[in-house]
């Protein structure tokens, strides 16, 4: 995941949106392709803890130089544009949020195309979307530990590329299912939220 390269054209102060998930910016004679990113913060505004106003999250992104930041609902989902690599974006956002909240908050970052791929890879697409959750990881899931795992209420689990999909027949709220993630950084969104984030990122 290296920095996205830039090259020079003799055009200035022009901005072009490329469909569907890239932005081309021509500023000062320099043409740069930037990625549309979606960042998912862990444990924000849940159960009265991890309180962070979404306008503050937008402000953090603006101070970091991320373009066109916008949030979706109150659970720490922010979409923005940057020419930086995914790892760099994640590190800077985690550090800035920690400075604001005075505690470490894990952040999972995906490009818009990666988020669409995660949505389309949903193995439980025949089930109600509000009962299907996606666990977003920073790295790859522990495939062997997840193989064949089921929950006490019939929950089903399947690993993806950097995600884990879980079907909760009785809903997620009362589930006793424990995933073997150890100390891995992770955050959960249901399929409805993932679908909306894809829609907003591609708009």
Q: How would you describe this structure to a colleague?
A:
The chain is an alpha+beta fold. It has helices spanning 54-63, 86-101, 112-120, 143-146, 191-202; strands at 6-8, 14-18, 22-27, 30-41, 67-71, 77-82, 107-111, 132-137, 156-159, 163-167, 186-190. The strands form 2 sheets. Strands 1, 2, 3, 4, 5, 6 and 7 form a 7-stranded antiparallel beta sheet that branches. Strands 9-10-8-11 form a 4-stranded antiparallel beta sheet. A hairpin with a 2-residue loop joins strand 3 and strand 4. It is globular and about 50 Å long. The two termini are 25 Å apart. Residues 1-20 have low confidence and may be disordered.
Descriptive key words:
203 residues; alpha+beta; seven-stranded antiparallel β-sheet; 5 helices; 11 strands; disordered N terminus
Nutshell version of this structure?
The chain is of the alpha+beta class.
Order of helices and strands: EEEEHEEHEHEHEEEH
Major sheet description: 7 strands, antiparallel
Helix content class: 25-40%
Quaternary structure annotation: single chain
Rg, Å, rounded:
18 Å
Mean pLDDT: 87
**SS strand fraction:** 25-35%
Class by alpha and beta content: alpha+beta
Backbone shape:
globular
Amino-to-carboxy terminus distance: 25 Å
């Amino acid at each position: 995941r290296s920095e996205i390269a830039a090259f020079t054209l003799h055009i200035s102060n022009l901005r072009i949106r490329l469909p569907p998930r890239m932005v081309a910016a021509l500023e000062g004679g320099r043409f740069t392709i930037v990625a549309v990113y979606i960042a998912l913060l862990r444990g924000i505004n849940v159960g009265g803890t991890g309180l962070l106003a979404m306008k503050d999250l937008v402000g953090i992104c603006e101070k970091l130089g991320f373009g066109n930041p916008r949030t979706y609902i109150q659970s720490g989902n922010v979409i923005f544009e940057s020419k930086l690599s995914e790892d760099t974006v994640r590190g800077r956002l985690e550090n800035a949020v920690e400075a604001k909240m005075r505690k470490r908050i894990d952040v999972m970052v995906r490009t818009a195309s990666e988020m669409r791929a995660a949505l389309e890879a949903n193995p439980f697409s025949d089930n109600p979307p509000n009962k299907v959750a996606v666990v977003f990881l920073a790295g790859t899931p522990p495939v062997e530990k997840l193989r064949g795992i089921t929950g006490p209420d019939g929950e089903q689990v399947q690993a993806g590329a950097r995600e884990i999909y879980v079907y909760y027949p009785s809903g997620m709220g009362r589930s006793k299912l424990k995933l073997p993630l150890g100390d891995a950084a992770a955050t959960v969104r249901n399929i409805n939220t993932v679908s909306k984030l894809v829609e907003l990122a591609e708009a």
